[in-house]
Specification:
The chain folds into 2 domains: 54 residues; 95 residues, Alpha-Beta Plaits. Helix 1 packs antiparallel against helix 2 and helix 3 runs antiparallel to helix 6. The chain is α+β, with helices and mostly antiparallel strands. The protein is built from 6 helices and 4 strands. The protein is globular, with a radius of gyration of 28 Å. The protein has a 4-stranded antiparallel β-sheet. This is FtsX extracellular domain-containing protein. Pfam families: FtsX_ECD (PF18075).
Length: 179
């Protein structure tokens, strides 16, 4: 790798010297055209970017594709139907565990969901008192490696399971239609 860096630096240095000679060539007209200067400035900026990428190690020679932009992980919830919960639980679990985009998976039972609901809405006792455990659905809570992975995973879940809804707080588009 150091050999490659040295060769790239040498080539970039030669290109920079050539660009400098063209800007100030002996016997050339005193002022280059604005378009010529812009082209040379653009080439210089591209060379600087390439040199920076090489110097920081961003340029790699591997068979792995380079990540263009960092992904933001996404927390997603797939709500199960109130009736037929066990059947849906198995189907959703199979899809999630087979999905390479999913990095972690946790099943939340109705009882666990009810307890979490009571804690989250403790400041509104009227709501907690008006809701019963059997009204809160069980769910699968899972993490996607990237928000852009949401549409294909959601599509797989809706096509092959009986989930009621899939919600991702930070994924695009925000509103998720129910079945």
């Amino acid at each position: 790798m150091p050999e490659l860096d040295d060769r790239i630096r040498t080539a970039l240095g030669a290109l920079a010297e050539q660009a400098e000679r063209q800007l100030h060539a002996p016997g050339a007209a005193a002022a280059a055209t604005a378009g010529h200067r812009r082209r040379l400035a653009g080439a210089g900026a591209a060379l600087a970017l390439l040199a920076g990428a090489t110097a920081t190690g961003a340029w790699t020679l591997s068979d792995r594709p380079a990540e263009v932009a960092a992904c933001t992980p996404a927390e997603v919830t797939a709500f199960l139907p109130i009736y037929g919960e066990e059947e849906a639980k198995a189907a959703v679990g199979s899809v999630l565990y087979a999905s390479p985009e999913v990095t972690s998976v946790v099943f939340e039972s109705r009882r666990e969901a009810w307890e979490r609901f009571r804690v989250e809405f403790a400041d509104t006792p009227e709501l907690v008192n008006a809701t019963t455990e059997d009204q809160i659905p069980a769910s699968w809570r899972f993490t996607l490696r990237c928000t852009t992975d949401f549409p294909p995973v959601k599509s797989r879940l809706l096509e092959s399971t009986r989930i009621v809804d899939v919600i991702c707080q930070r994924c695009e588009p925000s509103p998720t239609p129910t079945r």
